[in-house]
């Protein structure tokens, strides 16, 4: 569980990165979750964009992604979600 100070720090880092995944009409799939797990292991912090044609609500998508990848939900802002998971092999981000 992330503390407030840690979330603020991760949000500041997330402003500099671009979304690497998009959730569209088909919603969240198992394949997408597996790819996100791999990306989280390499990057630790990822941003996901939710397209306008997505049927699901942003909160539902964020919950299913964070639970599926065992990652922490950092923020939902507009149509973008930021997830963080500490990497086992490629630790890059040191939390305050």
Topology:
Elements: H1 4-14, E1 21-23, H2 30-43, E2 45-50, H3 58-69, E3 72-77, E4 80-84
Parallel strand pairs: 1-2
Antiparallel strand pairs: 2-4, 3-4
Largest sheet: 4 strands, mixed
Low-confidence sequence ranges: none
Helix/strand order:
HEHEHEE
Overall spatial form: globular
**Average of per-residue pLDDT values:** 94
Oligomer state equals: single chain
* Helix amount: 25-40%
Report the β-strand fraction as a percent range: 15-25%
Q: Please provide the count of β strands.
A: 4
**Secondary-structure content class:** alpha+beta
Instruction: Specify Rg, calculated over alpha carbons.
Output: 13 Å
- Count of helical regions: 3
N-end to C-end Cα span: 13 Å
Record the strand order, biggest sheet: 1-2-4-3
Description of the molecule:
- This protein is of the alpha+beta class and 96 residues long.
- The protein has a four-stranded mixed β-sheet, sandwiched between helices.
- A hairpin with a 2-residue loop joins strand 3 and strand 4.
- The radius of gyration is 13 Å and the shape is globular.
Short description:
It contains three helices and four strands; from the N terminus they run H-E-H-E-H-E-E. By secondary structure, it is of the alpha+beta class.
Supply database-style keywords.
single chain, about 100 residues, alpha+beta, 3 helices
